[in-house]
Design goal:
Length: 177
Amino acid sequence: MRRRFIWAGLIALACGNAQADGMYRWVDKSGKVYYGDAPAADATKVDKMKFGAVQTVAVDDLPYLTRRAKQSFPVTLYVAENCGDSCKQAREFLTKRGIPFTENNVRTKEELETFKQLSGSAGVPTLAVGKTWFKGFQAEQWGGGLDTAGYPQTPSNQPQPSANPSATKPEKTETQH
C-alpha cells in the first residue's frame, strides 16, 4: 500500500514538471541556435524564454468538450503593444466564442526572435491552436481551426470574466474568456 502512494507521488511530480517546463533557447557545440520545449543534452548555453501576458482565470469548470480540446490543442494568442484593432478583434473573437487561451505579449527583441522561430512570421496577431499557426486575424480561418481542434462553436453558460489588458501585466497567464 505504501509503495502505491510513493509511485503515485513520483508520477504526479513527473507530470507536474513536464507541464511546467515552458520554452527554451539553446546553442549546440557548433554554435547553431535552437528553440523548443526541452533543451538538448549537449547544449552549451540554455535560456528559458519568457513571454508577457494578460490575466489568469481557472479553467477547471470548463465544459467537457472544451477541456478535451484544450488538453489536446491548447490555444495561444500572440500580440504586441502596437497591434491595435486587429489584436483587439482577435481577443474579442476568442472571448465571444468562449475559448480558453493564453495570451503572450511579444515585447523584447529576444521574444520576437523566439516568436519568429516558432511561428515562421513576425506579424501579430497570430494564433497557435496546438501546433497549427494562423497568421493575421481572419475570423473564418481561425474559427475553422478551432472547429477542427474540437472546440465548441458557442460558449458555455458560465459567467465570463472581463479582460482589461491595460490594467495589469502579470508574467504568464491562461485566460478563459
